[in-house]
Amino acid sequence: MEGDFRTVSSLQPQAKAFSSLGRRLVLATLLFCLLFTLAMVTWRTWLAWENNLAEMNSELALIDQVFQNTLAHAIWELDRESLDQQITSVATAAPVGRVVLNILRPGQAPEIIELNRYTVAQSGVVPVLHRQLIAQPYAGAQEKVGELTIEGDNNLLWERLWGEARSIVITQLIQSLLLAGLVMTMFNRLVTVHVVHIARHLGELAPQTLKHHLKLQRAVLRQDELSLLESQVNALQDNLHAHLERQRSDELALATSRDQMAELVEARTAELKAANQSLETLSRHDALTGLANRRYFDELKEIEFRRAIRHKTPLAVLMCDVDFFKIYNDTYGHMQGDQCLKEIAETLRSVFGRSGELTARVGGEEFVVVLPNIDGVQACEAAQRLRTSLAERELPHSGSKVSPFVTVSIGVAELDPETMDHFDQLLQRADQALYRAKHQGRDCVAL
Ligand SMILES: Nc1nc2c(ncn2[C@@H]2O[C@H](COP(=O)(O)OP(=O)(O)OP(=O)(O)O)[C@@H](O)[C@H]2O)c(=O)[nH]1
Q: In what residue span(s) does the GGDEF domain sit (predicted)?
């Protein structure tokens, strides 16, 4: 769980090429500024054109105002020299491109004087001024003496327009570029730098660094989108950290309870094993004496019998019965009788403790001893050792008619492979021997 949980942490997008937001914003701003500049240039050029036309009109009107009367006077007075001088002055005036003077004389064909600034005829939309020349030979009299047409200078009009258009284009372009630069700088300082910082911070996040909060390097007087993003990223980190802590403590608790559970299971298994063992012991052993019980004895006797037959080894059985035990019980009580049986069992265990020798309690006060690899004679000797050993214990038996102490009668039988094919036959033989021992006076061994 402590591992790095970063999956896509690179600042570079995985599939698409990286393209800065600032650059895209600048390109969009530039495009917009260019279109805006184009529109502005068109509009302002149109205004300049209109102004130039109006200005040229005014200039032509002024020239006309200056020369109108003097020209009319010179025509009336037939002052050719003055007329030529004046018409030349009009034609060479800055805004004038062409001058046409139509001199009207009664009874004569009109005389036309035309002066062009350029050899090639101008065509365009220059302003044209038509005036009638009126002479006043005396007060109150008016005579029309000619017509004056003044055309503006087309080239001058365009030159003025180009000059202004150039300055408009340059100022608009500079304005657009400055605006784009300003937008880019502002966007870069206010947004891009912090977005990159946030991306780096997120990319370096790991479970152990969740407590390190995102801190944008900027001075803000009021909240904005970046402040919101910063606080939300930090809140997300806090939540994630709390969640991981909870998960870690849950895992610890789980591991602890798993260990406890394992210990409990282990303890229960050991208890069960012990219970099974004691159950097995109980089911196989006599509760009073601890010797093998009848059931266990029945399981083992055939095994020993088959082994002796297979290996052709001797096998002997002792059948032991406590003498006058009814009287013992009657004399000392049943509890003491039990105690006596325990003592006899202890004696059996001490005498027949070698491996392979089996002692069992098969009846109330009846015991059987199975002795492998021993023939009848050796078994009788072993039976005598048992009697001696019991006698040495000197368990009082006042009711016995053969001894002041507890005694046993023992019947001995040995395996005869020729005539026996079941252990019970051997046991029956030992039982018969016991019967004989009882009849021989008890406290003895009979084969
Ligand atoms: N205290 C006690 N007595 C038992 C137990 N099992 C059997 N007995 C008693 O053992 C006695 C056996 O008596 P009998 O079979 O008549 O034989 P006996 O009195 O020993 O006489 P002989 O065998 O002929 O010497 C009975 O009185 C049973 O009650 C036991 O587990 N505890």
A: 313-447
